[in-house]
Amino acid sequence: MTSIIAGSATALFAIWHFQRVSPLSLFANLAVMPIVTIVMFLAVLSALAMPFGLDGPFLYMMGKGLTAMIAISGWISERSPIDAVGLISLQSVLLVTVALVIATMATTWLRLASLPFALAGLLTISGTRTPDVLISEDAHLVALPIGGGELAVNRVRSNEFTTDNWKHALVSTTIVEPETFEKGDVRFDIADPADLPPGAPFTCAAGLCLARHPSGAIIAFADDRKTARRACAFADLIVIDDATAYYKPCRNPLVLVVTKRQLARMGSAAVFFDRYRRRRAEIRFAVRQPYRPWHEQRRFSREARGLPPYRRAERPKKPAAQ
Predict the structure, then answer these.
(1) Coil/strand/helix, residue 272
(2) How far apart are CA 79 and CA 156, in angstroms?
(3) How far is the C-alpha of 62 from the C-alpha of 67, rounded, in Å?
(4) Is the dihedral angle over the CA atoms 117, 119, 123, 126 positive or is it negative?
(5) Most Cβ neighbours (<10 Å): which of 105, 142, 172, 224?
(6) H/E element holding 208?
(7) Judging by DSSP bridges, how do beta strands 282-285 and 203-205 pair with one another?
(8) What is the β-pairing status of strands 133-135 and 269-272?
(9) Which distant-in-sequence residues (6+ apart) come within 8 Å of 230 by Cβ?
(10) Is 139 within 8 Å of 263 (Cβ atoms)?
(11) Count of CB atoms within 10 A of residue 125's CB?
């Protein structure tokens, strides 16, 4: 009952922060509880045996117990009927929170006052627009949903933790990696990127990756400012993985340019395209200015100051012994 009550009370905030639910968490907790008891007992024994150098067997058995816990949790998670739920609106979170407070604090018929707030929260749960493009704060990873539950990314080896979070937020099931061509390959013609069909994943060559959102907007990912200039004539969004790109390479005011320096200062970003493509895309950063005390350190990184990555100076070669 404690697990059910705690899970029900925190489910809303888990959905808000992680865009996922765990309907079978109670069964997972009950299944691993005996193993947890054994693992904790072995942990105590290993701590007592450590001064004598006899902790090895206990730690080994702890590892086996943790492996069993992970295996059971994974088996139950794979059979969960619901996992990713996508983004929910802030209005829904606030309304359901009010309903939760009234229902838990009132002890008389006043609890019924929580029902209108709960109903309003359920009706507004989907009243939010999902981002069209997501950009990581290190400017290495760009992702966009291309339809059919697919999420296109610009790197073959993407950060698994980040992509998993994005998949939950955008209710995607499959990661589509980019197709890379060598410089001069005739199959990659940057001269006419408008030929890319809507929903085309990333195609990369010579430091430039191109993709097309289902709305028709073209996204470009460039390694540096000079490479980004080639995309100014056709791109709606350009992401530059270069902190030294201190000014915008495009004169067209309708092109949204995001640099590594901006992301280092203000965190990861979500981009929203204009449905009619008459205005420049809207961008929302994770961190707002003026900084809160725990964000002050962001301004001191090399990227935030517009400096290139640190490279250790090469040591002078010693002359050969005579």
Answers:
(1) strand
(2) 28
(3) 9
(4) positive
(5) 142
(6) strand 208-212
(7) unpaired
(8) antiparallel
(9) 190, 208, 222
(10) yes
(11) 20
The residue count of the chain comes to 322
Contact 24, 79 (CB under 8 A): yes
Burial, 213: exposed, middle or buried (Cβ in 10 Å; 0-12, 13-18, 19+)?
buried
Q: How far apart are CA 190 and CA 225, in angstroms?
A: 17
For residue 42, give every residue at least 6 positions away whose Cβ sits within 8 Å of its Cβ, in sequence order, or none.
Answer: 58, 59, 61, 62, 65
Cis previous bond, 290, omega within 30 = yes
Query: Which among 162, 187, 2, 166 has a CA at the least distance from the CA of 86?
Result: 166
| pLDDT at residue 194, rounded to an integer | 72
Mean pLDDT over 124-153 rounds to 90
User: Which residue in 65, 1, 78 sits closest to 36, CA to CA?
Assistant: 65
Q: Are strands 142-147 and 282-285 parallel, antiparallel or unpaired?
A: unpaired
Q: Which two tokens stand for residue 156?
A: 């073959």
* CA separation for the pair 197, 147 (Å, rounded): 12
The answer to whether 263 touches 245, Cβ cutoff 8 Å, is no
Say if residues 227 and 206 touch (Cβ distance below 8 Å).
yes
pLDDT at 44: 96
Distance CA 121, CA 234 (A): 42
Residues 6+ apart with CB under 8 A from 292: none
Q: Are 279 and 264 in contact (CB under 8 A)?
A: no
At position 287, the amino acid (one-letter code) is V
Reply yes or no on whether the pLDDT at 50 is more than 90.
yes
